[in-house]
Structures are given as C-alpha cells and as structure tokens.
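EI: anyone free to look at a 257-residue chain?
SC: sure, send it
EI:
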Amino acid sequence: MLEERPLLLLSNDDGVDAKGIRELISALRPMADLIVVAPDGPRSGSAGAITSERPIRYSKVQEEDGLLVFKCTGTPVDCIKLAFHTLIPRTPDLVIGGINHGDNSSVNVHYSGTMGVVIEGCLKGVPSIGFSLCNHSADADFSATIPYIRAIVSKTLEEGLPVGTCLNVNFPDTADLKGIRICRQTDGRWINELVERDHPRGGVYFWLTGEYKNLEPEAEDSDHWALDHNYVAVTPTQIDVTAYALMEQMKKWKFDV
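SC: here you go
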C-alpha cells in the first residue's frame, strides 16, 4: 500500500495571484499534496482580522493532481477558518503562510496577515510556519529561499512542533544566504508612522508609512541581527502571550479594594 503524502494548507496576505505564493506552490508540490486558500486580493497588515459584517465567498481557480487552489473574499484568517470548515478532506500536516513580499520579523509579527495565517493554524492545533522575504517588490526574486523552505518544511514534518508554537521564518533579500540562525524576536518599534496631507476638498488625511527602529542593533541572538548579516532568521513563536514572570510578582500585590 502506498504511503499517504503529506497534506499542506497554504495561504498568504498578498493574494492568490502573488508571485510569492506561486513560488511556494512550485517549491512544495514535489513534497506534498497542496490545498491553497488565499485572499482574492492583497490583505497586507490584516494580522488576525476576521470578517463579521459581510458574507465570505470562495471559488476554485485551479485543480490539478495533488493541487487545489481557491480564492476567498475574506482575510487570511478567514481563509484558514474556511479551509478547516469546508475545503480540506482531513487535518493538514502543516499550515504555511507566504512567501510574503516583505519583512515579518520583530514587531511586524503582530501586524502581519501572513503570520495571521500561521497563528490561526497554530490555534487549530496544526504545526504552522510563515515564510517572508525582505523585499516588497511584486516581482521579487525568491529563488535563494527555495532550498531553505524545503529543508525547513521537511524537518518540521519530521520533528513536529510543540502544541501552541509556530515558526516565523524571514529571509534577507540576498542570493548569498549564509545559513539558518534560530533567533528571538528583536526589540524594536515603528516611528513616524503617519504622513499628514491637505485634502483638496478641505481638511486633512493621513497615509500610513513609518520607519522601523531597532532598539538593540548589536544583539546577535535576534532576528534582525541575523537578517542584517545575511542569515535566514527562524523565530519560534508562541500563541500564549501570558507574562508569567509578572504574573508571579502580581500574586504578591495587595490591592486596596
């Protein structure tokens, strides 16, 4: 009897037609059966957003041996919820987000629709991985990432991940990758985030923009240091955001009620 191939559920936040997800499909088809459920257009920055005020629809856009591709009117998280509810024949072996056009390291994990995919998969109890390239171009070159993506997916299928954890993988924009570093999330923040302009019909309006500020540029165990030095940054990420050390301290507090 032939062994069942792994089943991978793929999505992204750049849309079903983005180059990044098409490269991901090409990279993983030799390894597994793929079901893709992705937004019908760009949803960058949607994080864990869900659709609650309008209907969600989907349609099939491609079907081949070992590959099903659907587009969805909702958010990246909607795509994963819809897939689990309706579109997958069994629990997938992995949920994968990407390949994202842009950096999702450091605090970007909190804004990223790609990582929204991954966190939703993790919440479903499935090992999940997000892949991102530090290049926002629609025609970004993903070729250097492919061997690493295959290796990380293969190893994760072999080893699994602890319940409640997932992987945030970021690639520097270079063909000269030095290898993989297991990293923590960099302490950083966005500054100068809005540009104010006069509206021609009166009043003002704002464009979201901003600059990223690394608060610890010399920290060699961080994801930004790895990216700045041409390493693939792999950050184990957990969905339990409880501050356990503070919780223990607060048990000693005396509240005046």
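EI: The first helix runs from residue 19 to 28.
SC: 👍
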